[in-house]
Amino acid sequence: MGIRIDWGRLALERGYDTPRQMLEDLYITKGLPLQSVADKLIVSATAVRHAMLAMGIKLRPRHQILKGPSCPKCTIQNSRVIASHPFGSYMIRYRICLSCGARFKTKEVVVCERGSTQGHEFRSESTVDGQ
Ligand SMILES: [Zn+2]
């Protein structure tokens, strides 16, 4: 996807001086999940992630609430579940990335909240199987 976002304008419209200040406030100070920050700014979670990485804002490695887990190899959230195995309070899912073909495993916890669009919390174990 060609992402061309005017972060400076987004920040000014929301009363921040800089995009960095805006993202740090939403993601770090307010502790919003990446997807919620993206929804608030009406941009994609991938765009927010890229912007934060570019600005040197540290992403939370765990507890990232996403619409789907990111591929540990190419970071794109576009995978297909090959197999699911319940494992105590978790669900272990074997996935294949539809972008780069990497196979990886996720440990999933359901955090289903009523009225929430995000029904799952994905904790990517970042296990790339095979090559
Ligand atoms: Zn991938």
What can you see in these coordinates?
With 131 residues, the chain is of the alpha+beta class. It has 2 domains: 7-55, no CATH class; 79-129, no CATH class. The protein has helices at 7-13, 19-29, 34-41, 45-55; strands at 79-87, 90-97, 103-110, 120-129. It has a 4-stranded antiparallel β-sheet with strand order 1-2-3-4, with no helix packed on it. α1 (7-13) crosses α2. The structure holds zinc ion. Zinc ion is lined by residues 71, 73-74, 76, 97, 99-100, 102.
Rounded average pLDDT: 80
> What overall form do the CA principal axes indicate?
elongated
Q: What's the main sheet like?
A: 4 strands, antiparallel
Head-to-tail CA distance between termini = 26 Å
Radius of gyration from CA coordinates? 16 Å
Order of helices and strands: HHHHEEEE
Q: What is the strand tally? A: 4
Range of strand content: 25-35%
